[in-house]
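Support reply, case 0932

Customer input (verbatim):
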Amino acid sequence: MTIAWATVDAAIKSAISGCADNAQTRWKWEPSKMRAKITISLKRSPVRSFGRDHRRRAYDAGTDTLNAEQVGQRAFQLEVRCESDRGSPDDATPRAAADVLSQVMTRIYRPAVLAALREAGTTVAQVGNITRTEYKVEGREYDAAIVEMTMHVTDVDADGDDYWIETVNGTMTLTTPNDTDRDVPLVVA
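Our regenerated output:
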């Protein structure tokens, strides 16, 4: 079992869209379904390792086997980009993209949001600063803002092929000089 990106991605998208009122939220690779006044696009970086991986071992008495998993913490950057159409004639008070992202930054730490992310296998480690910009396209004014979040996720490798750190605990039967059997502990590292 490795990182379940489909589950993690769905939880992140749900968390961000739940934190931003009336904004269309989509991953960068997803096509835009409709034109919206406020859009949020998400993009994640490749994962990087931090800390040291460790082994989790469990003995299964039913099959008399030692099961092992290599477990490590990984981090990735989540870029959250918000764009606001400030030239919309029916919008008396357009919302700035930076205001939407500041709302996301405040709400992302709600216990319910953090619990949903944790259940999906990821956590928010750090939220960066908002960077703002403005631009025009065909006479329309747009407001854009970007914030980067550092997210943590656990990566699990359950192949059990790396035995260099494994130990097996058990017992071994020895025959004593007077021909009686005796069970003694056995540890193989």
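We compared this against your earlier run and they match. Two observations from our side: The chain is about 20% helix and 45% strand. The first strand starts at residue 24 and ends at 27. Please reopen the case if you see a mismatch on your end.
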